[in-house]
Amino acid sequence: MSDRSELIAVGKPFSFDAERDAEFERLITRYPIRESMIMPALWLVQEQDGWICAEAISYIAERIGTYPAKVFELATFYTMYHLKPVGRHHICVCRTLSCYLRDKQEIVDYLAEEIGIRPGQVSEDGKFSLEEVECLGHCGTAPVVQLDGEFHEAMDAKKLKALLATLD
Ligand code: FES
Fold it and tell me: How many other β-carbons are positioned within 10 Å of the β-carbon of residue 147?
């Protein structure tokens, strides 16, 4: 299993744009404990930049008034947060037991051979990125792929190829 904490990348100085800044100020009034705002704030970062860099972790900690380590531990625990740049279309393939037994590897191999990406990589044209993740909660219809946040069950390489062909 990869250690996600090794994956976080240095980016550039980060701050919210005006829209996210206003949303941050609106949302934080909902939380009596300011640290409860860490996860929504990480979403705002990802919405703005597409991924969460080390500088954004420090920025969120400062805005909330907590330690960067607390933001870091949440950002690295949940695979829904991207810790390095991703493609325009992000593909998550479940690698946990049911999907493993139902040949998730065929899908991973297809992506390596046809698109040229392995887990943790972005295609040369920036169109696709691939990540292997833990159980996506649809084990009864394994193998499961999450494409741009949407679940696709009982997948195989042929179905994925058809799905990817519909994307710009
Ligand atoms: S094991 Fe793949 S969705 Fe649960």
Answer: 18
